[in-house]
C-alpha cells in the first residue's frame, strides 16, 4: 500500500479535474436515469473502462448546509443509506482529510459490500462550494470487503441566482467497484444510487 501523498499537489490536480468535468458540453452526455429529484447522465470515463456519471438536481436549502451533509463528517452516516461506516483516518487541515468508509451490498447482494479509502477536500467555488475526492491505495483491506476505487469525483453546490434559498447540486462520480461484476449490473446500480442520493439528501434536510 502507498504512503499518504502530499496534499497540496493532489488538491490542485483534483480541483482542476473536477472543474474540467464541469465544463464538458451537454452534447457529450447521454441521459441514464431521470426522476423528479434528479437527472443522471453518463459518458465513457477517461480514467478507466467504465463511465463518468453526472447527476444534477435542485435542493431546497443553503449551500453550506447541503455540503455539510455530503462531505466527511457526522451527518453523512445519518442519512446516506448506502454508507454503512466511516472513519477519518488522517486530517491535514480543516477541509482536507483521508477517510475510510464501507458501503452496503446492492442488487440483492449481486454487488457485495465495498470498502473505500478516499482523500477528500472541500473548497469554495464561484458563489458556492466544491467537495471532491479520489481513492488512495492506503491502509489494509478489511476482511469481507472488496476494495473499490473512486477516480476523481466531486459535488458542486451553488445557490440559484433567482432563489438563494435553493441550491443547484451537480455531482461527477466514476467509481470502479472492482471484483467480478457484470457491467450492466454496475451501470444500473450507479444510476439508481445517484438518484436515491438526492431523494435521501432532501429528506435529511427537511
From TrEMBL:
Highest rank taxon of the organism: Eukaryota
Annotated Gene Ontology cellular component terms: cytosol; endoplasmic reticulum
GO biological process entries: cholesterol import; cholesterol transport involved in cholesterol storage; intracellular cholesterol transport
All copies of domain START, residue ranges: 29-206
Alphabetical keyword list: Lipid-binding
InterPro entries from the UniProt entry: StAR-like (IPR000799), StarD4 (IPR042555), START-like_dom_sf (IPR023393), START_lipid-bd_dom (IPR002913)
Any matching Pfam family: START
Gene Ontology MF: a single term: cholesterol transfer activity
PANTHER family in UniProt: STAR-RELATED LIPID TRANSFER PROTEIN 4
Name of the protein described by the UniProt record: STAR4 protein
Species per Swiss-Prot/TrEMBL record: Certhia brachydactyla
Name of encoding gene: Stard4
